[in-house]
Amino acid sequence: MAQPRPAPGSASTAPHGVVCGVCGTESRQHTFRPAAPEQAPDLDLRPGQPIRGTMARWLQQCPHCGYSAPDITQAHPAAAQAVGAANFRALLNDASHPPLARRFLAWALVLEETGALHAAAEATLHAAWIADDMARPDLASAWRLEAVALWRSGPPLDAEQRVRVVDALRRTEAWDDAAETAHALLRENPPEPVVQVLMLELRLIEALDTGRHSVATALPPPARRPHVAHQKSVKRGEGLRGWLKRLFGR
Q1: Half-sphere exposure of 64 toward its Cβ, with a 13 Å CA cutoff?
Q2: What is the pLDDT of residues 68-126, one digit of tens each?
Q3: Whose CA is closest to 119, among 231, 236, 237?
Q4: Please, which residues have CB within 8 angstroms of residue 16's CB and are 6 or more apart in sequence?
Q5: What residue ranges do the domains of the chain occupy?
Q6: Cα–Cα dist 57/127, whole Å
Q7: Contact (CB, 8 A) for 123 and 112
Q8: What share of the chain in percent tops pLDDT 70?
Q9: HSE-up of residue 166 (Cα within 13 Å, Cβ side)
Q10: Is the dihedral of CA 150, 36, 221, 137 positive or negative?
Q11: 54 pairs with which residues across the strands?
Q12: Cα–Cα distance measured from residue 62 to residue 152, given in angstroms and rounded to the nearest whole number
């Protein structure tokens, strides 16, 4: 029998048995391997199509305890404590949140418990993307603000993260904070591509524009980047210049 073809933008394995690293329950899960996107990312680095539409396959989730992760067979020692906490159980049962968003928020809670605050911010921002897709601006704004709080609660932010903070604040109508954050980074004389993105953000802030905009609007093509799962964090000392060079081949 012919095997089903993976969805565009991904290379998924057939479901296979995995054992949850938290509770030991076995379940059948896909393993998602993203392909390169063909369209430019948003200013907050949400990848372009076709990867954009594959978020349902970015995380696995244990059907018994609810543990969510890219690979649920791996679990930090603190993950069990996070999964057993009252706020985690309440999240899983909160029918007012889209189920897919709950999966990313569950992963964010685990990451926060383990001290990975920047990674927790990323997962929380992913939940905001789901809210965007479901036309829930109330949830999208709340989760963007949560992501900003997590980014700012962790270690010092690199230039990439600070640009994303600016975009998240703009998208939530936190105009003053967004502008101040952008101007603070500009005063540090960042590389020209960073300046171009920040100047676009400031124009959007001035216009009270909360909409989604593409990196291609600020930077010349090619504006392709790998899916977030492809990325390694920016190397210490490399800065956004090196990241953009790898991202755009500049």
Answers
A1: 13
A2: 999 999 999 999 999 999 999 999 999 999 999 999 999 999 999 999 999 999 999 99
A3: 231
A4: 28, 29, 31
A5: 10-248
A6: 14
A7: no
A8: 82
A9: 28
A10: negative
A11: none
A12: 30
- 110 phi/psi in degrees, rounded to 5: -65, -45
List all residues 6 or more positions away from 40 whose beta carbon is below 8 Å from its beta carbon: 48, 214, 215, 216, 221, 223, 224, 225
- For helices 137-153 and 117-133, give the axis angle rounded to 10 degrees: 170
Q: Could you tell me the pTM of the whole model?
A: 0.84
pLDDT given for residue 11 in this prediction: 52
Backbone φ and ψ for 22, nearest 5 degrees, come out as -100, -55
Distance CA 217, CA 215 (A): 5
DSSP 108-146: HHHHHHTT-HHHHHHHHHHHHHHHHHTT-HHHHHHHHHH
Encoded tokens for 38: 């063909």
Task: Report the residue count for the chain.
Answer: 250
Amino acid at 245: K
Does 9 have pLDDT greater than 70?
no
Cα 28 from chain centroid? 25
Q: How confident is the model at residue 35 (pLDDT cuts 50, 70, 90)?
A: confident
